[in-house]
């Protein structure tokens, strides 16, 4: 079952290995967020009342809308891979660009959502926030950090997918060599899944 | 195929040290994706950081020579033990063996031409260097070096005005580097083993590197996020751990140790692998209990992830929690003991050849046993209340990390040096240096057990006069140890330039794959990928000799 090497090992290609590496990396990303989910659970357990009150201040409409956007973007990402497998290069590029547009839309919404909170004086270190009970301070602290880090992952995802688009245009990614695109897709689904957990924890459970 | 042309032009059989690829000169090293060259890059950078770390340790010992101020003020002392800890942990022992010898030998030991992701491998090294430079930068920036201890405990780490942020980011980036190495090694072991090398034909150091790589993958992200959160808390004043904002500092400690306890297994497992590799060669015997040693690596990795709170017995925890963590701590000692017994059983009736690598390995077994057994003592609740935060702890972890991993690292260096460079160091000098190292080490750290037991606190710059005798002995030990380190490095550096040339493939009579290839190895290790038909460490010829001797 060993891999056949050509004389130059650096040129050798092993898609199974690439996929395996990517999955391992995604594990580490999950654990990274896992640390914050632990914090959330513990503080929710110790300050149930405050978390209840604070969660009411989040805008469920924007949250739901953003969830829909991200889910759709995961779909377009998957479609772009399906397209390249069927040798439909242009279609694949279109789906990748759509994914990027949706991701940017998500970030714009986030911008307005955070902006509104800032406007009401709720931001780390603000007087309004510091005058609230400690559970609410923790809730908003976690809210900013977790959605912020998630947002950072969205931006990284956009950059990665943009690279993939260029690769597809230049035929680096082709119908028989698309493991890069697949890995980018896996990463994007991870970003999506993390949001699927963030959304109920911050917006829905009050 | 066109590559064949390129290759034959390069000469397929050129040593990796002379190989000329796309880049030449210094770039041929800095941009090389050859796992052997990356291993050497790590070796050089790691040695530099080790020297810096040792210097700080040496200065601390000098300060402790007399009570009160000797050479520095308390604040400097706080910074120095922080930097010493950060450098030794994150830049020396954690990356140490996997990054240097894992990189260099893991592919060779499994019969591969490189790791699974050579470019990612190079990226890991760059991250390592950036992290290291950031740690050094935190010393030089205005504000003064961090003074929190390498543990960055909350709330002090969000309150102090020193350069905690660069130190935190340094640790974060180094964690990333470690994760990528782990991902690379796990994939390499799964995908690139030579034909015929099934799991139970892998050399034992591969098993231990494999177990280590899993711990790197599974534990490191937790410390990454935890340190990042502390940085965010400091910069933006977000309420996360700081009790003034409602946070829970004990929660920080949990998250910190969920990584940092498994991290001690990242440190020790690869060294155990090296020991398992060296003992059969110099005892001329097939390793005893191969499967037990292999599986105990995995067991250590598993159980080691469940004992973190034994660092927090005094920090506030329920009685049930204390009991469970105490019990689990005892259990983790079992697989380590299995290894020690198997090593000793391998030595039994062997014809032992006391070459430098073997001397370091024997010292490893001795010192690691002391470190491990005192670890069990600390796992006992009542004892831990007494010794927590005393120099007993400092002695314990130096016995494990320096007496264990550090000596394991030196053993590996003496063992593989001729293979890596095609040069031999002065063996006679190396043996003498070993004894100085051994004596220096034990003189330095053993007194810390005693004074810690009597109540000398850890991380204190001052002490009561009755402890002075122990401090004086310990500081003298540090002089012996540091001189030995100098001589050891000197011996290696001299050998690089003036040492006797080695072209023999198998200088020590090892039975693993690295001893079947050219010295120093050629660019892609193997001209033809070997087919593995036998288990490692089959010292058959030798057994025959022994049998005939017994028959007589
Ligand atoms: C010549 C070599 C060394 C000397 C003289 C030395 C000395 C010391 C001393 C005196 C302390 C106690 C600090 C205190 O409690 O005030 C200390 C702490 C420490 N050392 Fe070493 N050490 C050496 C090598 C090492 C090595 C090789 C490692 C790692 C493998 C290491 C890791 C640590 C760590 C993690 C601490 C704890 C720092 C803290 O409390 O935050 N040291 N060392
Ligand atoms: Cu521990």
Automatic annotation (TrEMBL), chain A:
Its main location: membrane. PROSITE patterns: COX3. Belongs to the cytochrome c oxidase subunit 3 family. Residues 1-206 form the Heme-copper oxidase subunit III family profile domain. GO terms for biological process: aerobic electron transport chain. It is found in: Cell membrane; Membrane. CDD domains: NorE_like. GO terms for molecular function: cytochrome-c oxidase activity. The gene is coxC. Keywords: Membrane, Transmembrane, Transmembrane helix. The lineage of its organism: Bacteria, Pseudomonadati, Ignavibacteriota, Ignavibacteria, Ignavibacteriales. InterPro entries: Cyt_c/ubiquinol_Oxase_su3 (IPR024791), Cyt_c_oxidase-like_su3 (IPR000298), Cyt_c_oxidase_su3-like_sf (IPR035973), Cyt_c_oxidase_su3_a-hlx (IPR013833). It comes from Ignavibacterium album (strain DSM 19864 / JCM 16511 / NBRC 101810 / Mat9-16). This is Cytochrome c oxidase subunit III.
UniProtKB/TrEMBL annotation, chain B:
Pfam families: COX1. One of its GO terms (molecular function) is heme binding. InterPro entries: Cyt_c_oxase-like_su1_dom, Cyt_c_oxase-like_su1_sf, Cyt_C_Oxase_1, Cyt_c_Oxase_su1_BS. The chain crosses the membrane at residues 40-60, 80-110, 122-144, 164-186, 207-232, 252-275, 287-311, 323-345, 357-377, 397-417, 433-456, 476-497. One of its GO terms (cellular component) is membrane. Keywords: Electron transport, Heme, Iron, Membrane, Metal-binding, Respiratory chain, Transmembrane, Transmembrane helix, Transport. It is a multi-pass membrane protein. The keyword ATP-binding does not apply. GO terms for biological process: aerobic respiration; electron transport coupled proton transport; respiratory electron transport chain. It comes from the Bacteria. Residues 23-533 form the Cytochrome oxidase subunit I profile domain. Belongs to the heme-copper respiratory oxidase family. This is Cytochrome c oxidase subunit I. The gene is coxA.
């Amino acid at each position: 079952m060993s891999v056949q090497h050509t004389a130059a090992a650096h040129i050798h290609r092993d898609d199974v290995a690439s996929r395996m590496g990517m999955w391992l990396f995604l594990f580490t990303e999950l654990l990274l967020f896992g640390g914050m989910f632990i914090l959330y659970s513990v503080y929710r357990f110790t300050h149930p009342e405050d978390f209840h009150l604070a969660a009411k201040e989040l805008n469920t409409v924007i949250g739901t809308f953003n969830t829909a956007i991200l889910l759709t973007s995961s779909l377009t990402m998957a479609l772009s891979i399906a397209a390249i497998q069927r040798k439909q290069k242009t279609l694949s590029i279109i789906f990748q660009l759509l994914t990027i547009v949706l991701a940017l839309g998500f970030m714009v919404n986030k911008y307005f959502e955070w902006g509104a909170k800032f406007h009401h004086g709720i931001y780390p270190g603000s007087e309004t926030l510091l005058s609230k009970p400690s559970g609410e301070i923790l809730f908003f602290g976690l809210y900013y950090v977790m959605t912020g880090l998630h947002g950072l992952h969205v931006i990284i995802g956009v950059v990665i997918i943009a690279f993939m688009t260029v690769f597809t245009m230049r035929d680096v990614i082709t119908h028989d060599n698309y493991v890069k695109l697949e890995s980018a897709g896996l990463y994007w689904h991870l970003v999506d899944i993390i949001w699927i957990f963030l959304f109920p924890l911050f917006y829905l459970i009050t | 195929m066109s590559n064949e042309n390129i290759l034959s032009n390069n000469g397929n059989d050129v040593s990796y040290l002379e190989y000329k690829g796309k880049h030449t000169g210094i770039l041929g090293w800095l941009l090389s994706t050859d796992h052997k060259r990356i291993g050497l890059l790590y070796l050089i950078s790691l040695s530099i950081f080790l020297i810096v770390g040792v210097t700080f340790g040496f200065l601390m010992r000098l300060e402790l020579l007399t009570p009160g101020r000797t050479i520095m003020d308390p604040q400097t002392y706080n910074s120095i033990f922080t930097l010493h800890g950060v450098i030794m942990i994150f830049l020396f022992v954690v990356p140490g063996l996997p990054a240097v010898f894992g990189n260099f030998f893991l592919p060779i030991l499994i019969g591969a031409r490189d790791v699974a992701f050579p470019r990612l491998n190079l990226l890991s090294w760059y991250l390592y260097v950036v992290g290291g430079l950031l740690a050094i930068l935190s010393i030089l920036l205005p504000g003064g070096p961090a003074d929190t201890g390498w543990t960055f405990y909350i709330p002090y780490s969000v309150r102090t005005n020193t350069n905690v942020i660069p130190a935190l980011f340094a640790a974060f980036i180094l964690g990333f580097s470690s994760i990528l190495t782990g991902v690379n090694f796990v994939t390499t072991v799964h995908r690139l083993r030579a034909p015929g090398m099934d799991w139970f034909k892998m050399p034992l150091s591969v098993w231990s590197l494999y177990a280590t790589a899993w711990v790197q993958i599974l534990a490191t992200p937790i410390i990454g996020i935890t340190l990042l959160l502390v940085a965010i808390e400091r910069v933006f004043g977000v309420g996360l751990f700081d009790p003034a904002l409602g946070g829970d500092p004990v929660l920080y400690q949990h998250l910190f140790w969920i990584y940092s306890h498994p991290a001690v297994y990242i440190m020790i497992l690869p060294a155990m692998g090296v020991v398992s590799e060296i003992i059969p060669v110099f005892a001329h015997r097939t390793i005893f209990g191969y499967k037990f040693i292999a599986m105990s690596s995995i067991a250590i990795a598993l159980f080691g992830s469940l004992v973190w709170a034994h660092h927090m017995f005094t920090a506030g925890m329920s009685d049930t929690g204390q009991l469970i963590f105490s019990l689990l701590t005892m259990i983790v000692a079992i697989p380590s003991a299995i290894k020690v017994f198997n090593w000793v059983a391998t030595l039994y009736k062997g014809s032992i050849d006391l070459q430098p690598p073997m001397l370091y390995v024997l010292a490893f077994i001795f010192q690691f046993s002391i470190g491990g057994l005192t670890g069990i003592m600390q796992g006992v609740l009542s004892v831990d209340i007494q010794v927590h935060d005393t120099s007993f702890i400092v002695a314990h972890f130096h016995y494990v990390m320096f007496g264990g991993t550090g000596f394991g690292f030196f053993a590996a260096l003496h063992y593989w040096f001729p293979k890596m460079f095609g040069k031999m160091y002065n063996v006679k000098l190396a043996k003498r240096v070993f004894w100085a190292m051994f004596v220096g080490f034990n003189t330095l750290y053993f007194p810390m057990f005693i004074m810690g037991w009597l109540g000398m606190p850890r991380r204190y710059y001052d002490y009561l006069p009755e402890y002075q005798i122990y401090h004086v002995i310990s500081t003298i030990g540090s002089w012996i140890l540091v001189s030995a380190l100098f001589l050891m490095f000197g011996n290696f550096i001299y050998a690089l330039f003036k040492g006797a040339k080695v072209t023999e493939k198998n200088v020590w009579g090892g039975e693993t794959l690295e001893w079947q290839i050219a010295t120093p190895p050629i660019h892609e290790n193997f001209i033809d990928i070997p087919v593995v038909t036998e288990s490692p460490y089959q010292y058959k010829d030798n057994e025959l000799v022994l049998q005939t001797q017994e028959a007589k």
